Amino acid sequence: MSFPENLQRLRKANKLSQEKLAEIMNISRQAIAKWESAQSYPDINKLITLSNLFKISIDDLVKDNEKNLCELKGKVDINGGFILDKKVIDFMIRAKRATYAGKGADVISSRPNSHDLEHIEGNLKYYDTYLGGEKFAGEEALWKDNIPFWSMNYIGRVLDEGFLGDFLKEALALVPKEYPYRGPLEHENGEYKYICTVEGDFTWYSGHEEIYKNDVKVYECNFHGGLIK
């Protein structure tokens, strides 16, 4: 059962209208309607609220959502017939883990003082290029047969000297299949905590990630992207 189906089932089982659930969640009824029709998905804070409200784990609440997002509800026809499927998501995750998150070596810069990383498997290519360091901006993209079909832009900054680059790479290496853009929704290691929120799916989405050290925010990054043709 998918997340939209789970949400609708739980809401009705608890005799809640969309309006009443929206009131409890302090959001609009339209937001609930979009969740139940798979037009959008809640961020991690909303998922936690739903989990607590219905006394169900987040994993059980969204467990089939991974399959839906990876297959993009029957797949998407782009670029003259190319069908995006789970293989593309798997390639993208391997590429991310092999490049920045895996401390992969830079390739030749495409622009003055840019950092460029790439990963190629057969006719699929992943490219990540960014500028800056403590304050940075960049773009990731995917190609099939040298035709670009997906892109993501990001911009971020280090807020405190307590930031640890290796922890960011550790979090990004855990990129989940259901949200294959940055890192997991949450990850902790010692005094560091990574939090990522995402709205939308592979075709059109936006998100935000933060890192805290002992409850002090030391890093933040905004990102957005989707399919291109």
TrEMBL record:
PANTHER family given in the database record: HTH-TYPE TRANSCRIPTIONAL REGULATOR IMMR, TRACRIPTIONAL REGULATORY PROTEIN-RELATED-RELATED
Domain HTH cro/C1-type per the UniProt entry, residue ranges: 7-61
CDD domains: HTH_XRE
Keywords, ordered alphabetically: DNA-binding
Record has Repeat as a keyword: no
Provenance organism: Clostridium gelidum
Gene3D superfamilies referenced in this protein's UniProt entry, alphabetically: lambda repressor-like DNA-binding domains
Keyword Amino-acid biosynthesis tagged: no
Protein name, as recorded: HTH cro/C1-type domain-containing protein
